[in-house]
Amino acid sequence: MTETLVRTQVRAAIATITLDSPANRNALSSVLVAQLRKALADAASDDAVRAVVLTHTGGTFCAGGDLKEALGRGLSPEEATAEGTRAMTDLMGAMLEMPKPIVTVADGHVRAGGFGLLGAADIAIAGPKATFALTESRLGLAPSMISLVLLPKMSARASGRFFLTGETFTAHEAQESGVVSRALGSADHLDHELECICEGIRKASPQGLAASKALTTADVLAQFRSSADTRAAESAALFASEDAHEGMTAFMSKQKPSWDASAS
User: For a FRET experiment, which of 17, 33, 114, 191 has its CA 20 to 30 Å from that of 26?
Assistant: First the structure.
């Protein structure tokens, strides 16, 4: 029997979709991605649903792809990488194309593909426990696929810093950089902000919401469609490189790769 990793509750015209796989930090395993895609499709087709809230259990909003799970199914590293890239592309595309607003709520760590979920959402809010880090450069990689939805939202200065350094930044810095719409200082304030957003959405007509979302996502979606294949090829080449192999091996063994010249 397949474990339920994504749960949905519909209340007062809002479908709350919860990533519920804290054991692996809500990583994007094949099962979780399939269940999330179905939950989004169900919400899109349900006339009683006006919008989606995407949230999580545990201390991590989403840690990105689940390479370990894919390898455990017998896939080669290259096959696992390709599968993860396709899954991330399809998921972000589905979120952008969905005619209903998507609000993400992160009150935990956001890493790798987790940024893709935030970037593809219409509104993103973060709580006091949220932390953010784009660590791909430290592994010999780059945030290729998620850049499709992140770069249109982030300021050039912020992406220039956080894409390159891989440093951890706070929810407040995420708000300043455009990664999230709003950072809240307490769980109560986070709940209040979410309810204010949902109440505003409840006042809007389905047609008005769909037309308004189409306006705000048109440029992002056009760039996404034109650049997705290029970014996917770039990601595959990076994952197949010697630098990436060394970087990921060093990360798993908690060692420094040969290029790390830091003092820490």
Answer: 191
